[in-house]
Design goal:
- The complex is a heterodimer of chains A (about 350) and B (about 240).
- By secondary structure, chain A is mainly alpha-helical.
- Chain A has 13 helices and four strands.
- In chain A, the strands form two sheets. Chain A has a two-stranded antiparallel sheet. A two-stranded antiparallel ribbon of chain A has the order 3-4.
- In chain A, strand 1 and strand 2 (about 110) form a beta hairpin.
- Chain A is globular, with a radius of gyration of 23 Å.
- Chain A starts with 5 loop residues before the first helix and ends in a 10-residue tail after the last helix.
- In chain B, strand 1 (about 5-15) and strand 2 (about 15-30) form a beta hairpin.
- Classes of the chains: A mainly alpha (about 350), B alpha/beta (about 240).
- The interface between A and B is medium-sized, with 18 and 26 residues.
């Protein structure tokens, strides 16, 4: 039964059909246009916030690319990624300062051995606020977190894989890992904020009224360099190509003779290393607090889903969008709403194009 | 004739469900053997069991005289057997060239030589090396899947219903290509719904039904047999 005359109903059905055949292509074009417009507008009218947003985005990108690799290859949402990122920055803190929380309130314990004891390790490099000791600490934290992630896989996720557990169980296990990691940081370093380096770090003035600390430029350059390395790995090296193949079709990867267990280990190693370095870079310009990792989950997931799950190049662009949008929003809303910005982005993608910018339909 | 691949008394299935109740097949060097039978006979399951994708609870698989029962697929590939699944048999977001590289993953030497050899066999793929496999048509995908499996120049190739969901014209050129691969010395075990085509292409054939061997023999003879025509060829 229809309330429309037949020929109109037919025409309407036709139009609906044509629209449906377009699929989510209009959504994708709309999304790209929206991103282009946002970047252009922000770059011209909010240059300072745009630049800061790109810096924040570049660090987020390291976390998001690790998250999306794990997502693509192991097929589950690793809700622990934010907290383990934070653990990475704390490990760098421990290696650099040798400090853990003491048995009495407000008195820390020094474990006696740390990188800041190396000769000249704390003397500032150029205009940066830190010396080479911290850099070594962050690199070593990357190695430690790579090993930690592999161990965690052995202990938790591999068991679930062998039982063919559903993705819900995987996600719940990841949540458990997130809570445990946070509790561990709370126990070892206490709830109070900590800093890698104390003291005032002055910003420099640049053309176009941009004001930046040299640390921020350093962070941006390192993050971009690592993203570039990851790109080279994934698109020009055998291991990386096998990782992409496995994300595409794990069964076919197995059939092709790829040792998928080994690819999983490499995925955790790379994801873990990236997350620790991202955490370390983040902590250079902010403070460390055990519960900060939880706040990272939303922007990380927004970036990952915006780019298309399992697509590192998408996660990179997604992280830049989230970073810039969050920073620019400060001009209009209180900074307390920054996490809400990531949430709004997430909702927009899920409405416009659920598979994200680079995602494929399965 | 020495068997390049020999499976004896294979019992296998998914979890608690036993699909194969003791199936035996054997393929001689350079031979083309078809496995036909109705839906649910266990044809695809047999390939998966032989390739180590599902556990074999009893029975034995030998490749070139070596026991490969329940070996992981990467070992089996390295020993000279390749497998083309029925569906989702290319990596859609990888380029054609990368798909082939993945086919040769277990070996690190002589990649460019092997690529050139496979491209010579599949000239249509040559000028599309950089295109992502997801852009290919159904027929081209099957060709790429075959090409991927040939990267290591295997002694045996297992094909799971390569003609499924292809147009009749595509099926013809695909079977032609399969014949070409076989005449270059690669033994092929071909599982097919399309029994007539498969039989006319093969040297020998096995008929499976409900997870057991039902018949085996000369493929041409089966094609002419009246029982076969009535039972399995739908005439």
């Amino acid at each position: 039964m229809t309330i429309l005359p037949d020929r109109y109903a037919a025409r309407l059905a036709d139009a609906r059909d044509r629209y449906r055949r377009l699929g989510d292509r209009p959504g994708a074009i709309g999304l790209w246009a929206l991103i282009a417009a946002l970047f252009l507008w922000a770059a011209i009218f909010q240059t300072q916030l745009f630049v800061v947003g790109m810096i924040v985005g570049s660090v987020l990108a390291l976390g998001a690319m690790g998250l999306t690799l794990v997502f693509g290859i192991l097929r589950f949402a690793n809700f622990a990624h934010g907290d383990t990122m934070m653990l990475g920055s704390y490990i760098a803190y421990l290696l650099f300062t040798g400090t853990v929380v003491g048995s009495q309130a407000n008195i820390d314990t020094d474990i006696g051995i740390s990188l800041d004891q190396l000769p000249g390790a704390t003397s500032k490099l150029g205009d940066l606020s830190f010396g080479y000791g911290l850099l070594i600490a962050i690199v070593l934290a990357g190695v430690a977190m790579a090993l930690f992630s592999i161990a965690l896989d052995r202990l938790v996720y591999r068991r679930l894989r062998r039982r063919n557990s559903s993705i819900v169980i995987f996600a719940m296990a990841a949540l458990g890992v997130a809570f445990s990691t946070r509790a561990l940081m709370m126990i070892i370093w206490g709830p109070d904020p900590r800093r890698y380096v104390s003291g005032i770090h002055l910003a420099q003035h640049y053309p176009l009224d941009i004001v930046l600390k040299t640390d921020q430029i350093f962070i941006f350059v390192v993050a971009l360099a690592l993203a570039l390395l990851l790109y080279i790995l994934l698109f020009h090296m055998k291991l990386g190509k096998a990782m992409r193949a496995m994300a595409d079709n794990a069964d076919l990867a197995l059939v092709s003779g790829i040792n998928t267990d080994r690819i999983i280990i490499w995925t955790w190693a790379i994801g873990g290393g990236l997350m620790a370095i991202a955490g370390g870079l983040l902590a250079i310009q902010a403070s460390l607090k055990p519960d900060l990792g939880f706040g990272l989950i939303l922007p990380l997931f927004a970036a990952t889903i915006l780019g298309g799950i399992g697509k590192p190049q998408g996660a990179f662009i997604g992280a830049m969008v989230v970073g810039v949008t969050q920073e620019v929003s400060v001009e209009f809303f209180s900074a307390g709403y920054k996490p809400a910005v990531a949430f709004v982005i997430l909702i927009l993608i899920l409405l416009l194009r659920p598979r994200g910018l680079f995602g494929t339909t399965s | 004739m020495t068997a390049v691949l020999e499976a004896t008394g294979i019992v296998a299935g998914y979890g608690e469900v036993e699909i194969l109740h003791g199936v035996s097949v054997s393929i001689g060097q350079g031979e083309m053997v078809a496995v036909i039978g109705p839906n649910g006979a266990g044809k695809s399951t047999l390939l998966k069991a032989m390739f180590g994708l599902i556990p074999t609870s009893s029975g034995r698989v030998q490749l070139n005289g070596t026991d490969i029962t329940n070996q992981p697929p990467d070992r089996i590939v390295a020993r000279g057997m390749s497998y083309v699944p029925q569906t989702e048999n290319v990596f859609p977001s990888l380029s054609i060239n990368e798909n082939l590289e993945m086919g040769g993953f277990t070996r690190s030497d002589g990649l460019s030589d092997r690529l050139e050899r496979v491209y010579t066999l599949f000239p249509d793929l040559t000028n599309r090396r950089g295109d992502s496999a997801g852009k290919l048509s159904g027929g081209q995908r099957q060709m790429l899947a075959l090409a991927r499996a040939l990267m290591l120049d295997p002694d045996v190739l297992l094909l799971d219903e390569p003609s499924a969901s292809l147009s009749p014209k595509m099926v013809e050129s695909l079977f032609e290509k399969i014949g070409e691969i076989n005449s270059s010395g690669t033994a092929i075990l071909l599982v097919e719904q399309n029994a007539k085509e498969a039989l006319s292409l093969s040297d020998r054939a096995y008929v499976l039904a409900t997870g057991e061997n039902r018949l085996d023999g000369d493929a041409k003879g089966m094609l002419e047999s009246e029982d076969m025509a009535r039972l399995y060829l739908g005439e």
